[in-house]
Amino acid sequence: QTGAEQHEFSAEVGRLLDLVVHSLYSEREIFLRELVANAADATDKRRFEALTDGARALPDDAKIRINPDKDARLLTISDDGSGMSREELVSNLGTIARSGTRAFGKELESARPEDKPNLIGQFGVGFYAAFMVADRVEVVSRRAGSDDAWRWTSDGKGAYTIEPAARDKAGTDITLHIKDDADEFLEPWKLQEIIRKWADHISWPVTILKDDAESPANEGTALWRKSKSELTEDQINDFYRHITHNFDTPWATLHWRAEGTIEFSALLFIPGSRPFEFGEQSRESKIRLHVRRMFITDDAMLLPSWLRFVQGVVDTEDLPLNVSREMLQSTPVLARIRKAVTGRVLNELKSKSSDAESFLKFWENFGSVVKEGIWEDAEHRTELAGLARFRSSVLPADEKSEEAAKSWTTLADYISRMKPDQEAIYYLTGDNEEVLANSPQLEGFRARGIEVLLLSEPVDSFWPDRLTSFDGKTLKSVTQGHADLETFPVEGETAEGDAADLDILIPALKDALGSEVSDIRGTDRLVSSAVVLAAPEHGMDLQMAKLMRRSGQ
Length: 553
Ligand code: ADP
Ligand code: MG
Fold this sequence. Notes:
Helix content is 33%, strand content 19%.
């Protein structure tokens, strides 16, 4: 190789490179994300430089091209970005961890295995991921504003060479000599799949060359990074359909940019209908996490599971691109984003709850999920209980008309209708609203004009146990023991009961039922029915007991 200057990586760097290549990423395909990210960064950089230097102007059709060549076993990623001068090639690619090789090496050596990827992220060595799939990498680059081009070549082991080269315009080509066991990265469909997964929303066009034709590989618009005024409702709705696979329009769209201690853009949706397979999916929130437009993961649990119906994207500047799974679990950055995003969604729900009819649509789709939050999220329990809507014994149970909004109540409205001496919010749980509405358990309450909430969803057997009280009023199941009914007068006419008869009836029933029941008592609960099952005062609610039995406990 005449004219090629040979440079050694220092012994230290050589060893580090080996470490990076073998312990950097769990998935090899990520090399492509790193190289495409670098190409996009370089294109951004050139656009920025062109603002003050016309000689570096970006071509109108600037893009990132991926060109697999199966016969030659070469994969080339080309861009129209800033390019690199000879010095930049040496310092950017020849010096691993430009911020200080020695410091990096020390830290990498002493770091626990789970912290290593994080360190590597901090030091910026994404380029070297190319050596996971290539046994030789060639970089030909021409700095924007210059006529000279240079070729940098290395096998990623001990050395690299630099020599003059030719390139007819500014930009960079990275050519990978694909390893024997990495054939898949020469397949256009595979490359397409990787881009879709990891880099779909890179803001520059990415194309893949197949049969001499360039086909677009990415969706291209990082919609969420644009301001509201730049977007039309159609664009937003298209994006909503793209990520949710729904065909309707969102019930709510949250689009904002957080600035300050933590910076991120978010575009989130509350679907207008319950997705087809919603119940079957996992309980984890699937909000997509991006770092500088690049997709990172959709299982960072950016929202609590009781908001798992929310879908969309959060894109931050405050994490490194190659953030590891371990880091995702421990970084305070993510904890802060979670808190901010959760608060924002909750505020949206609160503000939208003032439109009762519209809110009810939401509640019918996802109320059961929100109620899980009353059960499991102590921090938001009271707020969520305040948002919740319930069927009630004094309201028609099967109303489907426009008046439907009126047949639901909030806890606050319930409290406003309570009897003067009433201390508790009464509820009845069961499998089915209609059965509940006709339950004999309600007779005594109805007769006294006391309202009872009718809770018919599975989750309703759990959350009242945790909420215990709302606005100073305790929640009480009507099936739990004697329900304080003596203190309230019966309204209107009732059947005459004869207390004396009970003295004969109760011992007879006890005889007949034996250990099937723990006690038999006279009750104020019933008006027209003869008997009713009750749970002991401090025992489990009846519906809860039934569910426990069903699940074999
Ligand atoms: P990072 O991107 O985190 O800085 P990388 O190892 O991915 O670390 O890249 C190292 C450096 O090499 C980049 O910061 C950039 O200066 C330079 N570089 C890499 N790829 C390109 C490219 N396609 N065009 C211009 N410069 C590049
Ligand atoms: Mg990079």
